[in-house]
Amino acid sequence: MANILALIETTSTGGLKSSAAGLIGAAAQLGTPVAVLAATPGAGAASVAELGRLGAAKVYIAEGDGVGRVLTRPQLEALAGAVEAHGPAAVLVSNSNESRGVAGRLAVRVGGAVAAEAVGVRADGGRIIAVHSVFGGDYTTESTIEGGLPIITLRPGSIEERAEAAIPEVSTVTLVLAAGPAANIVELREAPAETGRPALRGAAKVVSGGRGLGAKDNFALVEQLADALGAAVGASRAAVDAGFVPQSHQVGQTGVAVSPQLYVALGISGAIQHRAGMQTSKTIVAINKDEDAPIFEVADFGIVGDVFTVVPQLVEAIKARQLAAV
Amino acid sequence: MKIVVLVKEVPDTYEARKLDSSGMLARTASELVPDEINERALESALRYQDAHKGTEVVVLSMGPESTVKTLRKMLSMGADSAVLVEDSSLAGADLVRTSAVLAAAVQREGFDLIVAGNESTDGRGGLVPAMVAEHLGLPLLPSLDTLEITAESVSGSCAIDGGTLVVNAALPAVVSVTERSAEARFPNFKGIMKAKKKPLAKISLADLGLSPEPGARSTVTAAVERPVRAAGTKIVDEGQAAQELADFLAANRLI
Ligand SMILES: Cc1cc2nc3c(=O)[nH]c(=O)nc-3n(C[C@H](O)[C@H](O)[C@H](O)COP(=O)(O)OP(=O)(O)OC[C@H]3O[C@@H](n4cnc5c(N)ncnc54)[C@H](O)[C@@H]3O)c2cc1C
Ligand SMILES: Nc1ncnc2c1ncn2[C@@H]1O[C@H](COP(=O)(O)O)[C@@H](O)[C@H]1O
């Protein structure tokens, strides 16, 4: 089977980011998964067991001082080295702020082409097909690459397939960054660890709040319902702009696209750009004062009402049922 | 200082957007407007210009003839001049092709700093800025929520999974900005009148010395529209709605 490279993302302490499982899982759909890792000197070996557990048949480690200090270039050199060493049929990279630039640069460097923001991949005879969700899920498209190395960026959290555990064959090389213009990492400010709530991407249930919550303190109402349901917390852009929650919670066109079993929209009008990030949810529930709010056009269950009245009652009703079920 | 802002014309996100059967954008189905993110990119450049007289701001786009309207809007906001790369052989150009053309065009124009949007609302690839940077052998500060420009350098912060990166680079460089960056100004009447007289150059692939045949490329092989979602039950709260919703969730095994 052909080698498929997966660029692994790491934390500041060298641990694997959560995107690794989906990248290796997608690589296994297409061929033999080869995990590619840029690490500080001596730090790569610590990840091998975990990469094997996630299904990497081979691990290519490039170690050098630039990792964590210089943006993009260490990962680009690691990936370019792995392309030479393993002659892959495709390269998979997370479409994240930190990694997608590596994909773009590699395409220019090796004369490949990119299929961007795929939500799935498959092999079709000799061709590699990338599946995309376009215009907020309004269309599903497929693309293929001709005349060069296929480089595919994957939407974070979109790949559910997982590879079978393997005992990887490891190669380690020294990473040398040529002198030249570079973007430098001055500092990494770690975000405070999330409370026990599920992450928004890939969550089975999401409760989102909008401008209708009125104030930052009131957003606790969204969190209370989320906790009662075991759901992740999302928000509209207006709620993010108002400072109710950090941007990482934004659902929509320019935020996270979610597709949970249950999506609850509280005090959200349902602007087309918000719907673009949640309209493929299995079941949609909306609570809004305005009976004409567009969110009701896509809601399976809509309540015309005040979130400050309905949500506390709903939390109680859910808790009562959960107690009764025990 | 000369700042080139990369601008893409996109279908308005306030309307339903359509693909045709070959997976290409149905250009007549919705109004085409400057991508909101590129108005923010221009705003970042204009703020530097406001504080530093003598700064030149150029807006550059690759697109069909209609893109002139988008560029005029950017001129009315305050850009000094505009360049449109327009060539019939560029219809349906993929990311590799687009970035090669944009890189050649900015090189021809000359610059100290290139400002782009982090990702376009129609493609969401977010790859063009990095590819342009690679063509030019320059650093890219990607997806900046905040941006500081000085005469010698650029710096800013970029949100990543697990935190925020603070990054910097010496000029010349490429940066891309997010929707958390500078909110764009509205063009005023004076700006709109002045924009009509500002230079807008149209250039072709031949002007850039590029050949019309693309090399490696990605092509769309299928496009399927999702069935329209039907609205379900809608009730008015008269004190009973929370209970009814709890019943609905239970019946659907969601609690
Ligand atoms: C390029 C572009 C990209 C965008 N990307 C996104 C995106 O990714 N995500 C996104 O969400 N938006 C996005 N937007 C913004 C979008 O157009 C809307 O402005 C935004 O979604 C509105 O958020 P909202 O529904 O919270 O606020 P509003 O539209 O102000 O709605 C608030 C709602 O709360 C209701 N309400 C008020 N008080 C109560 C109460 N006590 N009880 C119940 N209901 C109440 C009101 O009736 C109203 O319907 C984008 C816009 C553009 C141009
Ligand atoms: N055809 C184009 N003309 C000018 N700039 C573009 C074009 N395509 C992409 N860009 C720039 O690259 C950014 C990111 O686009 P993308 O990589 O397509 O998501 C956009 O916000 C623009 O700044």
TrEMBL record, chain A:
Function field: The electron transfer flavoprotein serves as a specific electron acceptor for other dehydrogenases. It transfers the electrons to the main respiratory chain via ETF-ubiquinone oxidoreductase (ETF dehydrogenase).
Source organism superkingdom: Bacteria
PANTHER family, per database record: ELECTRON TRANSFER FLAVOPROTEIN ALPHA (PTHR43153), ELECTRON TRANSFER FLAVOPROTEIN SUBUNIT ALPHA, MITOCHONDRIAL (PTHR43153:SF1)
Record-linked PROSITE patterns: ETF_ALPHA
Family note: Belongs to the ETF alpha-subunit/FixB family.
Subunit architecture: Heterodimer of an alpha and a beta subunit.
UniProt name for this protein: Electron transfer flavoprotein subunit alpha/FixB family protein
Cofactor(s) the protein needs: FAD
InterPro entries assigned: DHS-like_NAD/FAD-binding_dom, ETF_a/b_N, ETF_a/FixB, ETF_asu_C, ETF_asu_C_CS, Rossmann-like_a/b/a_fold
Pfam families tied to this protein: ETF, ETF_alpha
Keywords: Electron transport, FAD, Flavoprotein, Transport
UniProtKB/TrEMBL annotation, chain B:
Protein keywords: Electron transport, Transport
Domain of life per record: Bacteria
Cofactor: FAD
UniProt xrefs under Pfam families: ETF
Quaternary state and interactors: Heterodimer of an alpha and a beta subunit.
Similarity section: Belongs to the ETF beta-subunit/FixA family.
Function: The electron transfer flavoprotein serves as a specific electron acceptor for other dehydrogenases. It transfers the electrons to the main respiratory chain via ETF-ubiquinone oxidoreductase (ETF dehydrogenase).
PANTHER family: ELECTRON TRANSFER FLAVOPROTEIN BETA-SUBUNIT, ELECTRON TRANSFER FLAVOPROTEIN SUBUNIT BETA
Protein name: Electron transfer flavoprotein subunit beta
